[in-house]
Every structure is written in structure tokens, then in C-alpha cells.
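General statements about sequence and structure are easier to judge against a single worked case. For one protein, we set the task of working out the C-alpha cells from the amino acid sequence alone. The sequence in question and its C-alpha cells are set out directly beneath this paragraph.
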Amino acid sequence: MPAAALKPKPLPTQSTAKRPVLFDSPYEPVAKRPLPAGRPREWYVTHNRRLKAMRLAIALLDSGVYLPTQARNERIRRTARLIGVHPPSDTTCHMVRAFLRYNR
């Protein structure tokens, strides 16, 4: 069997599809679900802090901040104001820099 026959057929694009192809918009928020019950309070605090830090890290990456040294607390808090998030604590700012560090 020729190698070309083993290749999967590419998905249709907007120009080759018979009908419009629906794309998932990355800017559309995911539907929120309730968090699992029965965990200790500290788990919920940490979980929400991680989510906030990820949102801030993504916003910083979108604005051109790629290095943790570029993301000082003031810049992270300014970004939080821009995207409509409550000002992060020092711990959350530290977590944002950790996400940027591991992004590289």
C-alpha cells in the first residue's frame, strides 16, 4: 500500500467545505460548572488562585510579556485591572511569574 494512501484526509477549510466550517473562538469563555463538594476550604482557595494566575499569565503573554523578570507585581496588578479581575495578592503574582517561567 503506498504511503500516500495511509495519510489521513485533511479536514476541510472554510474555502473547500461545502458548508461553513464552525471554528471554536478562543476568546469565548467556557461554561462554568460547580466545583466538587466536600473538599477542604484551602483546596478551593488554591484552585481559584491558580485559575486567576492562569488568566493573568495569558493576558500578560498576549500583551508581549514573556519573561518573569518583566512581570513585576505592579505590572501584573495593572493587567488585572485591564482585564477586570480583582487585584491579585503577592502570592498570586508569584504564581503568575511561575506560569511564565514554565511557559518557556
The helical segments are 3-6, 41-62, 73-83, 90-103. The chain has a mean pLDDT of 83. DSSP finds four helices and no strands in the chain. Residues 21 and 100 are 34 Å apart (CA to CA).
